[in-house]
Design a protein that fits this description.
This protein has about 350 residues and is α/β, with parallel strands linked by helices. It is about 25% helix and about 25% strand. Helix 4 (about 160-170) packs parallel to helix 5 (about 190-195). It starts with 8 loop residues before the first strand and ends with a helix.
Length: about 350
C-alpha cells in the first residue's frame, strides 16, 4: 500500500465509479485531500460498458473504461490519493465529531468523514453465455444501450415495472421486443403492463425462462434458447440484443448493520441530501438510487456528497471522546434473533 495515510483523514471515499470519483474531485478541489478506497474493480459498472453515448461532454461517445480513467485522472490532478483495494470492514461513529474507521488490507484508516459510493450490481440470470456475451448483445441497461439495436430483434427478461419500462423504451429503436417471463402473470403495475401490451412491436412471451445464450460467427449474441416452465419444452429465438431486467443488488453489505436500508438494501439518506443517519457519513450513486441508475445522476450525487461532507467538516469539530459504537437497537435485535 504505497500511499501516505494520515493519522486522521478528513474524508475517505469508499468506492469509485462516477459517484466516488466525482466526490473525490470536489473534495480534493476543496483542499480536503481525500483518500479513495476504489476497490480492485475500480470504475464501477462502466468498466464493463463499451460505448457511452448519453453522457454530456462526449459528442462522439466514449468507451466506458476510458471515461472512468478520465474521471480518475481529473480527481488525481487535484491531489486525490487512491488505494486500489477493497474495504473489508467499516466502523462508523454515531457521535457528531466522532472518528470512523475503514479497514483495508489489514490496515485501519481513521477518518472524520466517509462518503459511501459502493454502487449496485445488476442481478444476473446465471445461465450459460450470459457473462461471455455481456456487452456483446447482453445488456443490463436499456436506457444506456437501446440505440445500438435499431431495427434488431431483441428480448427483455423480467416481469416487473423495470422490464415493462425497458421494453417500452427499447421498442422505439428495436424492430421487435419479446418480454420473456417465467409466469403468465406479471408483477408490473397495470398501467405499465398495458402500455407494453399496447405497443405494436412488443410481444409477451410466457411462461418461459432463458436456458442459455449463444453467439454467432461474429462472436456476438445471435440466439436465446428458452424453456417453457409448464411443460419443459424448449424453443430458440434469433436475437441480437437481450436486456436483463430482474433488478439490482446494492453493495451495502459493509453497512447493513449500521445504517438504515430500505427493503431492497439501498442506503437511506435524509431528504434531498446525501446524509445518512450517522453524522459524517454520506452516501451517493447507485448505492442509494434504485430509480435512475445513470452515470450522470451518480456523478451528481457524488458532487452533493462532497459538498455535504465539506459542510460537515467545516461546522463539526473533532470530539476526542467520541468513538465508534454499534447501533444499540440493532445489537439488541440481533441478540433476540440469536436467542434459542
Amino acid at each position: 500500500m504505497n500511499v501516505e495515510i494520515k493519522d486522521i483523514e478528513n474524508v475517505v471515499i469508499v468506492g469509485s465509479g462516477p459517484a466516488g470519483y466525482t466526490a473525490a474531485l470536489y473534495t480534493s478541489r476543496a483542499d480536503l485531500e481525500p483518500l479513495v478506497i476504489e476497490g480492485f474493480a475500480w470504475g464501477g459498472l462502466l468498466q464493463q460498458t463499451t460505448d457511452v453515448e448519453n453522457y454530456p461532454g462526449y459528442p462522439q461517445g466514449v468507451m466506458g473504461p476510458q471515461m472512468m480513467q478520465e474521471f480518475r485522472d481529473q480527481a488525481e490532478r487535484f491531489g486525490t490519493r487512491f488505494i486500489t483495494d477493497d474495504a473489508t470492514k467499516l466502523e462508523l461513529s454515531n457521535e457528531p465529531g466522532g472518528i470512523h474507521v475503514v479497514h483495508v488490507g489489514g490496515q485501519e484508516i481513521r477518518t472524520r468523514a466517509v462518503v459511501l459510493a459502493m454502487g449496485a450490481e445488476p442481478k444476473k440470470l446465471g445461465v450459460p453465455g450470459e457473462d461471455e456475451l455481456a456487452a456483446r448483445g447482453v445488456s443490463y441497461c436499456a436506457t444506456c444501450d437501446a440505440a445500438f439495436f435499431r431495427e434488431c430483434e431483441t428480448i427483455v427478461v423480467g416481469g416487473g415495472d423495470t422490464a415493462m419500462e425497458d421494453a417500452t423504451f427499447l421498442s422505439k429503436f428495436a424492430g421487435k421486443v419479446d418480454v420473456v417471463h417465467r409466469r403468465p402473470e406479471f408483477r408490473a403495475s397495470a398501467i405499465m403492463l398495458q402500455r407494453a401490451k399496447d405497443t405494436p412491436n412488443i410481444d409477451l412471451l410466457t411462461p418461459y425462462v432463458v436456458q442459455r445464450f449463444e453467439a454467432g460467427e461474429n462472436g456476438s449474441l445471435s440466439k436465446a434458447v428458452l424453456e417453457n416452465t409448464d411443460d419443459g419444452s424448449t424453443r430458440e429465438i434469433k436475437i441480437t440484443g437481450a436486456f436483463i431486467a430482474i433488478g439490482h443488488r446494492p453493495n451495502s453489505q459493509l453497512v447493513e448493520d449500521q445504517l438504515d436500508l430500505d427493503d431492497e438494501g439501498y442506503v437511506l439518506v435524509e431528504g434531498r441530501s446525501t446524509r445518512t443517519k450517522l453524522p459524517g457519513v454520506f452516501a451517493a450513486g447507485d448505492l442509494t438510487d434504485h430509480v435512475y441508475r445513470q452515470a450522470v445522476t451518480a456523478a451528481g450525487t457524488g458532487c452533493m456528497a462532497a459538498l455535504d461532507a465539506e459542510s460537515y467538516l467545516r461546522d463539526t469539530p473533532i470530539d476526542p471522546e467520541a468513538h465508534w459504537a454499534p447501533d444499540p437497537e440493532k445489537v439488541e435485535a440481533a441478540a433476540e434473533s440469536a436467542a434459542p
